[in-house]
Amino acid sequence: MRRSDAAARREAPAEEQEEAGALQGIPLSLYLHFPWCVRKCPYCDFNSHAARGDIEEERYVDALIRDLDYELSLAPLALRSPSPLVSIFAGGGTPSLFSGRAIGRVLEAVAVRLPFAPDIEITLEANPGTADAGNFREYRAAGVNRLSIGVQSLDDAQLKRLGRIHGREEAIAAYRTARTAGFDNINLDLMFALPQQTPDEALADLRAACALAPEHLSYYQLTLEPNTEFAAHPPVLPDDEAAWTMQLAGQALLVEHDYAQYEVSAYASAGRQCRHNRNYWEFGDYLGIGAGAHGKLSGDGGIVRRARHKHPRSYLEGAGGAAAIQEERTVTATELPFEYAMNTLRLNQGFGLAEFERRTGLPATALDAALNQARKKGLIEEEGGHIRASAFGRAHLNALLREFLE
């Protein structure tokens, strides 16, 4: 699509401006899913598929671009003259299996169709086992300005238990390669409560990650998810008390290294919170493109969620039309309070009642019953129309969210 075509499509007739204007101000992001990995990890429940031979990157990039065009044809009126994209996130799977040229081609196609914020955050997930200095330089040249590296552990024994294709030294080398390529905003994914892990081992693992001084750390507990190899053949994991000890000790260590927690499992140095994930948690809008990708868009007809077919073959065959969509639904008014709380209460800052009204179109009184129960149980704190989980509520987040579900 030519730039002039995209601009023409985004121009709404005058009589439609009022409808579109009601939606302006809700941030917009774009998620791009790359579904292939070298090997499926035994704990992973994401939509990822072991690559067997050529991953047909040109064909897949073509499909992503067709899919974006189709998604924009379905989008609410506000996207005809949208607010700039605040973030793009290339996730997987393993996007770093794709060449820098392929990633650049996708980003160029997006730039033709949608305006970018001047300070747009563009993240690409990378696996240390697929790190390549040439690709990292090409990603940076293409406009990627943030890397998220799936380290998971810096202990060779644990990496072997987790089925990872890299070792400790490869992980450290990938991080240093990213720095050399010019990345000054890097996230490391790290897990705790790993098979047979002790609290001391978990703390040593986190200490090694902090020593690298990434701008952001995603520090989360390994859980056994349905339909994974670990669920079918569970490893021996630390008990709940040991896992809690690891979490508390890890949080204290992160504070010592000047990482501030802003979400359940997200810690950042000053000014380095993940803008893309924050948009999810703050109930912003996002386009979801690629095999298995999910999107959320607000319109006068309500909030619509769409999901693409998960299997790459089905997606490739249908991309560019309705055949690529596996599910589409409008979120009902009764579902909205729970969906909103499920996202915003993950953030330490919580949410404002006025923002709830703006993002959902519902009156704040729709939350009264849930807030009353949460208040009685000490699960929330309130100040000037702002709601956040109390320390007790953060420790029992599922119990807090059930109040909104019920």
Q: Which structural traits does this protein have?
A:
nine-stranded mixed β-sheet, TIM Barrel, three-stranded antiparallel β-sheet, 17 strands, alpha/beta, 406 residues, Arc Repressor Mutant, subunit A, 17 helices
How does this model look, in words?
This protein is of the alpha/beta class and 406 residues long. It folds into 2 domains: 3-280, Aldolase class I (TIM Barrel, Alpha-Beta Barrel), CATH 3.20.20.70; 333-406, Arc Repressor Mutant, subunit A, CATH 1.10.10.920. It has 17 helices and 17 strands. It has helices at 3-10, 17-21, 57-74, 100-113, 133-142, 156-161, 168-180, 199-211, 229-232, 240-256, 275-281, 312-318, 336-344, 353-360, 368-376, 391-395, 397-405, and strands at residues 28-34, 36-37, 49-50, 85-92, 116-126, 146-152, 186-192, 216-221, 260-263, 266-268, 285-290, 294-299, 302-308, 325-330, 351-352, 380-383, 386-389. The strands form 4 sheets. It has a 9-stranded mixed beta sheet, sandwiched between helices. Helix 3 runs parallel beside helix 4 (100-113), helix 8 (199-211) runs parallel beside helix 10 (240-256) and helix 15 packs antiparallel against helix 17 (397-405). The protein is globular, with a radius of gyration of 21 Å. Mean pLDDT is 91; it is low at 1-22.
